[in-house]
Design a protein that fits this description.
Blueprint (H helix, E strand, L loop, with lengths): L1 H34 L2 H36 L8 H7 L4 H49 L25
Helix pairs in contact: 1-2, 1-4, 3-4
């Protein structure tokens, strides 16, 4: 089981690195949003998607390893979380490494969430501004509504506005 726990630690360390990468890209994304640099923003989104894809692969590996460890311990995969596994490793060499990588992963995910929340707010503000600008532009481009006399009424001079006798 020690080998599986070490593999789990390796996978989680790799996840920490991918999350750090995402964090850095998200910070760059924030700057691009503020500068309204659409080209850079598009490049960053593409890079983030690649890193997210890598992280999804790592997450599948992590889930598989936890399920394998749970099976060895006679538990169901859903019954075994990181805290429980750390407790089960009481006194073993792998316990400290697993605890540390879990702590680092939690910290970077929290930091990443904070930056992404800021980016979300910035994007929502930018969208609101664009909508406001479009509405303002539409209102200046729309012609004045045409006013026609009601049926049976005539214009100011007593004649219709389309009068061939003028």
């Amino acid at each position: 089981m020690a080998g599986m726990v070490n593999q789990l630690i390796d996978v989680m360390n790799e996840q920490v690195e991918r999350h750090k990468e995402l964090h850095g890209l998200s910070l760059e994304e924030k700057d691009a949003i503020i500068k309204n640099d659409i080209e850079t923003l598009q490049k960053l989104v593409n890079l983030k998607n690649m890193v997210i894809s890598q992280n999804n692969r790592l997450e599948k590996q992590r889930i598989s390893l936890v399920a394998d460890i749970a099976e060895v311990l006679g538990l169901k995969g859903q019954e075994l979380d990181l805290a429980a596994l750390v407790d089960l490793l009481d006194g073993q060499v792998e316990q400290a490494g697993l605890r540390e990588v879990g702590k680092r992963l939690k910290e970077i995910v929290t930091e990443l969430k904070e930056v992404n929340d800021i980016n979300k707010e910035l994007l929502e503000t930018a969208i609101d501004f664009v909508e406001y600008s479009l509405n303002a532009l539409r209102s200046t481009l729309m012609p004045e509504p045409a006013e026609y006399p009601l049926k049976g009424q005539s214009g100011d001079d007593g004649k219709g506005t389309f009068n061939a006798t003028r």
